[in-house]
Amino acid sequence: MNHFCANSKSLLLQTLNGFLLLCMISSLHLVTTATSEENETDLSALLDFKSKIVGDPFNIMSSWNNSFHHCNWTGITCNISNGRVMNMNLAKLRLKGTLSPSIGNLTFLTTLNLLNNSFHGEIPQELGRLHYVQTLEFAFNDFGGNIPNNLSHCTQLLSLGFGANNLTGTIPNWIGNISSLTRLSFALNNFHGSIPHEVLRLGTNRFGGVLPDSIANFSTQLYTFAFGSNEIRGNIPAGISNLVNLTLLSLEGNHLIGSVPDAIGKLQNLQELYLNVNNFSGRIPSSLGNLSSINKLFLEENNFEGSIPSSLGKCKELLVFSLYRNKLRGTIPKEVFSLSSLSIYLDVSYNALSGTLPVEVGKLQNLGELVLSGNNFSGVIPSSLGSCISLEKLRLQGNSFQGNIPQSLKDLRGLLDIDLSRNNLSGKIPEFLGEFTQLKRLNLANNSFEGEIPMNGIFKNVTSISLYGNSKLCGGVPQLNFPSCTVRKTSSLRKLLSPKVAIPIGIALVLVLLMSCFLTIFLIVKREKKRTSLSTTSLELGFSYSEIANCTGGFSQDNLVGSGSFGSVYKGTLSGDGPIVAVKVLNLQQRGASRSFIDECHVLRNTRHRNLLKIITAISSVDQQGNEFKALVFEFMSNGSLEDWLHPISNLQSQTKTLKFIQRLNIAIDVACALEYLHHSGETRIVHCDIKPSNVLLDNDLVAHVGDFGLATFLFEEPSNFSKQSIMSASLRGSIGYVPPEYGMGGKPSTLGDIYSYGILLLEIFTRKRPTDEAFEGGMGIRQFIAMALPNNVMDVIDPSFICEDEFDDESEEFEENEEEERAIRGNYEIEVHGKGLLEACIVSVMEIGVSCSATAPSERMPITAVVKKLHAIKNSLIKKKDKV
């Protein structure tokens, strides 16, 4: 009995196991069948999408065929676990056609990116079936019709972009219910009609309605919130302060009225604020000073009244500030002029501002444009303006400035555009304006200038200058049609030739001639006496050995900041609490060190430029043991050398010493400007002979200063007994990897040799590879390495550390050469819209300049003046400055 029961139980268990196994096989078959059917659904949807494509210039759709599984088709990514289509990225492929409703069958889709194509027709309602979709990017197409209401079912949306299409209708109210949204863009469409009060207004379209109070209830995850260039009316609700994560708030180009609420100052993370081209009135809220992260602030073309709040001086990150065409009065606060961060432009033109410009304007040393035109400013132009060495445009026209153009402006050699017209300026036109080699436009019309018009530089180009309305001017090139100064000179000459005047003048001239001869003889004798001790320099020898030893802590190793072939550099503090300096102590035991000291003194005595290392004094003395001691004292560069930033020696430095693309570009421009000055701006051309990263010093603002002129030479210096041996000695000047090839074959130092070294340096800045890097094998140098990668593979060889910088937006557009078209599409979002495409174009251009400069044949190298111009053009293409006047 027990045996029978046991057998029965065993039989029952076997039957049950068999039944369960049959169920599992059936279920697996059903799952496999379902998955297979779903994959077939995805495949069918993709083929239907392909069938609607009528234009495919890159032949992308040719890969969508049976030779490959659809998960391997161009632009398609599938989920690994279930094989369903997850991402569809066909951006920037110039596809033309309509969007198939079958797209709604890709129910596992999370990203659909059709950015920058030529799709037309209506957006299908079937998109509402994409319940997992997070990103919909249809910008820069030709879609028409309304936004489909079924998109309200896509509750996981993070990014929604329908900009630059032909969409019509109104903005649907369901958008305000999708709390997950972080980015919204509806730029350049044809939305119209009234907007329900409870709907959150989105995008940058031309639609009507009133900005609702319900904005206060919207998700605080939103970081981009754009309304620019619409027909929006009403006020800004105070509840906008709840959007605490906003980094971009764009309301420009609407019909908004009333005052800007103080609550806007609570948006602590805001980096860009666009309120320009509206009908705002009242005072500018002082709470804007709380926006500690703001870097772009546009308030122009409104009806703001009152004064500029001094609290804006707390916006220490501000790069650009525009207030033009408002109704502001009073003076510009000194706190605003003290914002050293301002580097793009400051524009307060066409208001009713008055008073004099304070000396604090000189603190804007990084500013590119200063526009104060169309106000009531008076008094003299402060000489401190000469400290704004980065200025490219200076526009002071339409004010009441008086007095002369200050001589201190001669240091602003980077100026491209000067407009001082319609003021009360007087005196002579300074000759130094004609020495500005970069100057393209000069307007001095309607003032009270007098005397002879200069004939140099820009004054020879009548299409680039304007001098009318100055009745006391004379001379100049004939095309200016000013009266000749000859008559006035002749009249004066007749008076001088009268006997009563001529005899005393003749006696005086004889006495002056005798004194000059005596003084010349005295100086020659004195110079011969000094030649044995310091044949050299007229630099002031203002410190003794003991003073220099004290300021460097007895040349302590703790103060050692670097060493080279001819000596060591120490950090020191003058007079206990004086300025911090760098002291270069020459190692006189090293052969050539004394000659290096003399050469460097010669160069530094004859040069002055904002991108050259500034010398304070030179010391030629004896130390405590009676040994000869020579040193040079320089302005201290707090950020060390470019070498430290490109090739840090520790992991900590690698993390802290990183340069963004625009910083590298600025450094490259600074070094090029320094070479341009050395090669072309003095009476004698100077060749540096040792351009490399360790000789490029960076100040507190990362402005580059070229130093170490120990190997420099004047091109006119060539003794009569200049032997072949001395030629070879000179030709080997420089550092390995940066020395031009012709120096190794006996060539003399030349400006073209400096350009070669600069080209290698330029390639090193953007690749972070030394010219002697182990990657360059088999005779290939850094130039050949980059040349082979140009233009299509350049992004593979440059330093990857700045490719993911947040200064360029991820969904940016390709670079367009048509500036008007760019501006129409871009608005105020140049970097956001054109980041990566423009970044790559700029990198290619920079690398081409580096390859050209480092050409083997000197005659094929790009002139340094052209280098400066091209690099400035590249920089301007990144951040274009609008002409506001």
Description:
The chain is an alpha/beta fold. Among the domains are: 328-342 and 352-496, Alpha-Beta Horseshoe (Leucine-rich repeat, LRR (right-handed beta-alpha superhelix)), CATH 3.80.10.10; 526-636, Phosphorylase Kinase, domain 1; 639-878, Transferase(Phosphotransferase) domain 1 (Transferase(Phosphotransferase), domain 1, Orthogonal Bundle). The protein contains 15 helices and 41 strands. It has a 17-stranded mixed β-sheet, with no helix packed on it. Helix 9 (661-680) runs antiparallel to helix 11 (751-767), helix 11 packs across helix 14 and helix 12 (782-789) packs across helix 14 (830-853). The relative contact order is 0.04.
What is the topology?
Layout lengths: L1 H50 L1 E3 L20 E3 L6 E5 L6 E3 L12 E3 L4 E5 L12 E3 L4 E4 L13 E3 L4 E2 L15 E3 L38 E3 L6 E2 L13 E3 L4 E4 L13 E3 L4 E2 L15 E3 L21 E3 L6 E2 L3 H4 L7 E3 L4 E4 L13 E3 L4 E5 L12 E3 L4 E4 L13 E3 L4 E4 L13 E3 L4 E6 L11 E2 L5 E4 L10 H11 L2 H36 L10 H7 L8 E5 L2 E7 L6 E7 L6 H13 L9 E8 L5 E8 L6 H5 L4 H6 L4 H20 L5 E2 L8 E3 L5 E3 L6 E2 L9 H8 L19 H17 L14 H8 L29 H8 L3 H24 L10 H15 L7
Parallel strand pairs: 3-5, 4-6, 5-7, 6-8, 7-9, 8-10, 9-11, 11-12, 12-14, 13-15, 14-16, 15-17, 16-18, 18-19, 19-21, 20-22, 21-23, 22-24, 23-25, 24-26, 25-27, 26-28, 27-29, 28-30, 29-31, 30-32
Antiparallel strand pairs: 1-4, 2-3, 33-34, 34-35, 35-37, 36-37, 38-41, 39-40
Helix pairs in contact: 9-11, 9-15, 11-14, 12-14, 14-15
